[in-house]
Amino acid sequence: MVLKIFFPQCCNRADSGLLVGRWVPGFDSVVVLAVIHYPFIPGQVKKYLSEMQSAIQLELTVLGSWSMPKDGQEGMDSFLKDLSTIFPQGRWLQLSRELGKRGFACDDEKEKVIFIHYDQRKVMLSHLHPAHGQEPAAEGVSELRLVFQTVAQSQPLFFLDKYDDGPIKLTHWQSEGREASILVELIKQASVPMCLVLTWLLSLWTQLRILNMWPVRFVSSKLSTCVQLSHRTEHLQTISSPRRAQQHADFMRKANIFVSFLVDIALGLLLISWLYRENRIGRLANTLVPVADHVAKELQELLQWLMGAPAGLKMNRALDQVLGRFFLYHIHLWISYIHLLSPFIEMILWYVGLSACLGLTFALSVVSDIVALLTFHIYCFYVYGARIYCLKIYGLSSLWRLFRGKKWNVLRQRVDSCSYDLDQLFIGTLLFTILLFLLPTTALYYLVFTLLRLGVVLLQGFIHLMIDIINSFPLFAGGLRLFRPYRLAEGVKFKVLCEEPGMSLHLMMEINPLKLSTAVQQYRIPTYSCYPKDSWAALCKKLFVGDLIYPWTPLHKGSKED
User: Fold this and answer.
1) Which residues does 76 contact at the CB level (< 8 Å), separation at least 6?
2) pLDDT tens digits, 408-430
3) How confident is the model over 308-331, as pLDDT tens digits?
4) What's the average model confidence in pLDDT over 172-191?
5) 507 and 109 in contact (C-beta within 8 Å)?
6) Which of 141, 313, 488, 504 is the most buried (most CB within 10 A)?
7) Which long-range contacts (CB under 8 A, 24 or more apart) does 430-438 make?
8) InterPro entries, alphabetically (predicted)?
9) Is the entire prediction scored with pTM above 0.85?
10) Are 260 and 475 in contact, with CB atoms under 8 Å apart?
């Protein structure tokens, strides 16, 4: 059997005294947390340990004695050894260190002893994640995880430093002075009333009856701005909760949301400072109307090309003229609509620009909605072309089943055999011929407007992708991984620290940080998806049969539709 003693580096040169720590249950290991200096009163030591046990809900005991030779303390070893009768334990560890030697010894003749030195501050602040590809439950009772949990739960034990006037003096990582910040303490004191006020305001906002009415719910589900507003409301409700995060995952989620919110606001303020300088709003408004006119002119030229002989194709002239004039009329209405709004565009953009104070994601959502409104005529063209094309495709497929003596059984959702009379076959042949010869004209219009619609959808998808990155990227976890990698531990590694003849083996435990990609993936903030719900094969099938596609419909993760 091998006894493993996890010893903190900060106690290597501690004065002689008692070792305080915990035996790891189920393993032949012990975790040393602190050293109580001589002189001390055993009764006060027992009282202090009982108070600590009730505070941290962890069993702390006197593990043994620690002897560090000093002038005037020649009989200290025998005195500390006799304390085993006052602090009765099943096993009494007696550690000692000699001057001039790097390692130290343990007076235990029954077992071989290995000393594992660890950085107490890093182990206390770190969180041990399961190894890559391993289930968390398999790591739940591991020896290393119990060591990390013991050090992390013993944080109140490290509050006692050398400046306290108590009867007990300890050596631990904070014994030279407690690590604290006045700014952090002030923020902690002010955060509780701020969270209560913010929670009350958010409850008033979410309980407004007008927001629950059907028209408002329907419109808000189609506008990216309203979806982003509801998303940020959920985030504020999460971070303004006055309840303390119990689990590490809850703490990381709150911290990631808070940092993401601050960065979003900062980027929005930078955008405002850029927009409202050198009359950029006015120049943008003066550019917007000519661009809309140019797009409308290009569409008119495209329709004129389709009404002729596009690429030398022979089109049905009557249907071609009807569809072309129908779409040209819509473009005329759209140009009139744009010129009617042109005097107010600068004022609208001026007020819309102020929305960036709510964050860059909110401003990008407004831009996405503006793009949707400015390209509404393209969406209408796509819907008209898709519906006409879809009706012809389904009509042709139904008439094709008629030729083969089949029909679609609606109740059983399958194709069954059916007998038709001569009149039905004659009418079906005429309709099939008409639809087949009109299909190329309709398909060409559908193809052109589908490509235009996909261009707009790709632009909106890129905007939503940037919103999704800002909303979901775990900035706090990424910052910890880059600047405090020990906070996110994936495992540990050991290196030989000291191996002297006649002395126990001394190892140094170092923390292996979590990979950056793994940390980002594990702590990614849940948000609404801006990607297509269907596979590429399903999208291609929809394009072929003329079904309407909405690739970037905002959906919250975890919803029934997702």
Assistant:
1) 16, 38, 67, 70
2) 877 887 888 888 888 888 888 88
3) 878 777 788 888 899 889 989 988
4) 72
5) no
6) 488
7) 431/395, 431/399, 432/396, 432/399, 432/400, 432/402, 432/403, 435/392, 435/395, 435/396, 435/399, 436/396, 437/316, 438/316, 438/319, 438/392
8) PigQ/GPI1 (IPR007720)
9) no
10) yes
